[in-house]
Amino acid sequence: MNRFGEMHCSIAQAVGVVGEPWTPLILRDLFLGLCRFDDLAQDLGISRNLLTRRLEHLVAAGVVEKRRYQERPPRHEYVLSRAGRDVVPALLTLMAWGDQWSTPPGGPPALLVHDCGAQFTPVVTCPHCGGAATADTVTAVRGPGAAQGPGTMLLSAGVAAEAAEAAEAAEAAEVGQTAEAAD
Question: What angle do CA 115, 117, 119 make, to 5 degrees?
């Protein structure tokens, strides 16, 4: 569907799975309890062909599970898989951003209530100190999978520098071994 899957970046990989137009809204509806094809099509006002393609993609990616609920005629429902349930906090955070920066007239269309009974707005926090994780408080550094490739210019610059340093160190070690052998 897109080239994001070719990029060596977790965000690009995730967008390749859940970032197609309509997909976040399909995931939202599944989270809220709509699970039958006709209900999803009606709620979203999406064409049946497009909904079919999006659901097939989500099922193939392991984000949604397709379950038969009727044999004749065959009918299926769609539910979030574990991976699908794990994307819900990202959807809730996107919803909070939308509530703050692009709220529909009249205010937020939905409010969130936690199991504890309190209404809340999702906030991403550091699991170690509890501080808010924002553009001002977080720095991205190379991870164990950092590599050169499309969409990795900033992180791969460090990989290239490390490779150059390793090559220089190897060359220096080789020159040192050659010098020792000559002595």
Answer: 105
Q: Nearest Cα to 37, choosing from 72, 76, 71, 79?
A: 76
User: What is d(CA 41, CA 52) in angstroms, rounded to the nearest whole number?
Assistant: 9
Q: What are the pLDDT digits (tens) for 61-74?
A: 999 999 999 999 99
The pairing of beta strand 112-113 with beta strand 119-120: antiparallel
Considering only 2-16, 22-36, 63-77, which range has the smallest mean pLDDT?
Answer: 2-16
pTM above 0.90, yes or no: no
Terminal-residue alpha carbon distance, the chain: 63
Cβ contact 20:2 at 8 Å: yes
Q: CB of 181 within 8 A of CB of 173? A: no
Beta strand spans in the chain (E): 64-70, 75-80, 112-113, 119-120
Q: For tokens 């809220």, what's the residue?
A: 32
- 156 pLDDT more than 90: no
HSE-CB for 65 with a 13 A CA cutoff = 9
Beta carbons within 8 Å of 25's beta carbon, 6+ residues apart: 44
Confidence of residue 6 (pLDDT cuts 50, 70, 90): confident
What is the full DSSP assignment across 150-161?
TT-HHHHHHHHH
